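Hey, I'm writing a tutorial for new members on how sequence and structure tokens pair up, and I'd like a real worked example in the thread rather than a made-up one. If someone can provide the structure for the chain below, I'll link this post from the tutorial.
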Amino acid sequence: MTYAGWEIVGRNDQELPFAKTVGDALRDLIRRRYRSNAAKTIERDWDLDARTARNVVGQGNVSERTLTKAVRAEGWELLAALGAELTGETYEQFVERKLRQAIREADDARSNLVHLRARREALDALTADSDAPGAGPDAEQVGAGPGDDRGSPDQPRPRRTGTAAD
């Protein structure tokens, strides 16, 4: 098991478990499944030597070779149980969670699509309005007359000549 030390003032270090290892999870599963004679049972069922079986049940020491023997003997049930022990959720719960996540993402994408379609329609309407006769850059601007020098932004401003009295 992974531990971190935490020193409490005036006391010895306290070990805090932060995560279970595969060996710890396997040990806990074996202890729950076989209340008595666990080491002898897995020694026989998994084809282990006595010392290895005692290490698995006692300390949770599991080598890759031992784990392979255990999986071959127990099958998918052991892998599913280890997964649940290590993650805190069963495979069914994991699949359910992923399905809910996919549904949420699809709903978000659908909502985004509706928003984008409405935005495109609004832009299309604006484009259609600017293409109508009397609209656009060539149209006469409101307030543009002989004394108004605002004119179109595309056209240069007229130059004033003479004095202010003219």
